[in-house]
Design brief:
By secondary structure, this protein is an alpha/beta fold. The chain has a single domain, classed as Beta Polymerase, domain 2, CATH 3.30.460. It has 3 helices and 5 strands. Strands 2-3-4-1-5 form a 5-stranded mixed β-sheet. Strand 2 (about 60-65) and strand 3 form a beta hairpin. Helix 1 crosses helix 2 (about 40-55). The longest helix has 16 residues, at about 10-25. It starts with 9 loop residues before the first helix and ends with a strand. The mean pLDDT is about 95.
Length: about 100
Amino acid sequence: MQYCSINNNKEHLLKLIDWLYQEVISAGGDGDALWYSKYFDVKDILKLVEEYNETLRYKWKVSFDEDRKLISWEDGQEGILITNNREIYLNAPEWQQCIVVN
């Protein structure tokens, strides 16, 4: 699949990453979000997540599963999953605080 370039969309994507982070931490210690990206490669998004994470006072753990096309960005019970994997999106738990598809 041909993905869009993050270079032309960096500002937009960083705002989305910030929104996801802010939404999850607003849950007061138990927030979860999922971003199913159909248009941007998670390998490219990973760079932006790491860049954003470096700006945080308390950095979250960032891990990447290339086989599952999955970024896991978490701190304790708070976490954000970012994926290109449709199956992960389709099997998201009901308790997921928010799900973004783009």
